[in-house]
Amino acid sequence: MNPASQMAKLMLELRQAGITEVGVLEALEVTPREMFLPEQFKDRAFENVALPIGHHQTVSQPSVVGLMTQALEVTDRMKVLEIGTGSGYQAAVLARLCRRLYTIERHPPLLEQAEDRLKRLGLVNITALTGDGTLGWPEQAPFERIVVTAAAADVPEILLGQLAEGGIMVLPVGLDERDQHLIRVRRTETGAETEDLGATRFVPLIEAGVED
User: Fold this and answer.
1) Does the annotation count 60 as an active-site position?
2) CB 44 within 8 Å of CB 106
3) I need a surface site. Which of 14, 64, 66, 199 has the fewest CB within 10 A?
4) How far apart are CA 207 and CA 132, in angstroms?
5) φ, ψ for residue 108, nearest 5 deg
6) β 163-173/143-148 pair status
7) Sequence-separated (6 or more) residues with CB below 8 Å from residue 119
């Protein structure tokens, strides 16, 4: 099957998974996933599966990236924080939809590779940092949107504190990989409202300097 046919098949799978927002679908379609994969997995770029990228990390399956991005309800006027750059794939999708993306990764080699890929794609509205994502990025807060690409035990209060009023955070919650749920949090005047978006599976959210 040629790349165009593989992409058409993947886009159909994404729609069937519930991704209906046109902007999100377009961002996924124009982002070359093979660029974000190790050499031995590039031929699987169009498969809707998570794939390893080293350092006990994975690049999420396209449907999960799409669903998380769609749940954020991002517009081109928003400042977004991403916790867990990983390969840079989610960042590449988000950067096409927001005004400015700030992204944090605790593994320097992964961040270096991700920054190179994002630069080659010409995405210039991204600022990256090596650091402890559990602390957020207080110097740049508040953020209209926050996305966390690793599973926390609960909604992190530090990150919630960096979310603007009316803002949305999307993250997986649950330390047991067999019992994780994707949660959408909306910051309100009086606190936060949470919504369960369904079961998911992510690596755990770990502080910088802590061994996997």
Assistant:
1) yes
2) no
3) 199
4) 5
5) -55, -40
6) parallel
7) none
| Interatomic CA distance for residues 59 and 45, integer angstroms | 10
C-alpha dihedral (8, 13, 17, 19), degrees to nearest 10:
-10
98 and 91 Cβ atoms separated by less than 8 Å: no
Contact 198, 181 (CB under 8 A): yes
Domain boundaries, the chain: 3-200
Per the structure block, which two tokens stand in for 189?
A: 């005047």
State the greatest distance between any 2 C-alpha atoms of the chain, in Å, as a whole number: 53
Contact predicate 145/78, CB 8 Å: yes
* pLDDT tens series, the chain, 212 aa: 788 999 999 999 999 999 999 999 999 999 999 999 999 999 999 999 999 998 888 899 999 999 999 999 999 999 999 999 999 999 999 999 999 999 999 999 999 999 999 999 999 999 999 999 999 999 999 999 999 998 998 999 999 999 999 999 999 999 777 789 999 999 998 889 999 998 888 888 876 545 44
